[in-house]
Design goal:
The chain has nine helices and no strands. The protein is mostly helical. The protein folds into two domains: 4-89, no CATH class; 104-204.
């Protein structure tokens, strides 16, 4: 028994259904899906991906088969109904996805060591670090510093902290994290002694009035 055995009735319905009202189309589609459900027999346990890939119908439990089959085999119906509405009405996405970017362009705590301009590898069409270990060490170390800078900001923002009221605490946390990174990496970066010394001076001079200023 193949997947076509179950999907052919849906495909034939899609082809045969005239462009009548959405309610009538949904009713016709629901009837077809119920027909497919009756033909499928027993289904579903907990791991749905495994079950969908399985050829052993005895693993399926009838309580979950409706949810899986309506969403999986019934997708053409819901797509036909919802996609035109989203396009015509400019509805946009139903579920908003929030993205937090970790980029040197957003890491602004360390003055001259902030932003993309602090990286050595951006030269020579972003290939400069291929030719210099010192450049690679520079960008690796600043990458860790920039990542920590952004992660602390992201966590504080997600926790809805008062970024201005808590600035002293946030700066202190960043300073401690930055120094721990330098302590951990210093022995592994033989070409970065000057950079590390400069970073230590910069970090030591951080305070609430300067951190985060571009």
């Amino acid at each position: 028994m193949t997947l076509n055995h179950f999907t052919d009735p849906i495909h034939s319905t899609c082809a045969a259904t005239e462009p009548v009202g959405a309610h009538a189309f949904q009713s016709a589609g629901a009837a077809r899906v119920h027909h497919v459900l009756r033909r499928c027999g027993g289904i579903v346990a907990t791991n749905r991906d495994m079950l969908l890939a399985s050829t052993n119908p005895t693993l399926w439990h009838p309580d979950a088969r409706r949810e899986i089959l309506v969403n999986y085999l019934g997708f053409p119906f819901w797509d036909v109904l919802t996609f035109p509405i989203m396009t015509w009405r400019e509805v946009g996405e139903f579920n908003e996805i929030l993205i937090d970017r970790i980029s040197p362009q957003d890491a602004n705590s360390l003055g001259e060591f902030s932003g993309s301009s602090s990286l050595k590898g951006i030269g020579f069409a972003h290939f400069a670090a291929f030719f210099s270990r010192a450049y690679r060490e520079n960008d690796y170390l600043l990458g860790r510093i920039h990542a920590l800078d952004r992660l602390i900001d992201i966590v504080c923002n997600s926790a809805r902290l008062d970024m201005n009221g808590e600035r002293n605490s946030i700066v202190a946390l960043k300073k401690r994290g930055f120094m721990q990174i330098l302590d951990a990496e210093e022995k592994h970066l033989p070409n970065s002694a000057v950079l590390i010394a400069a970073l230590r001076r910069c970090i030591a001079g951080l305070d609430a009035s300067t951190s985060g200023k571009e």
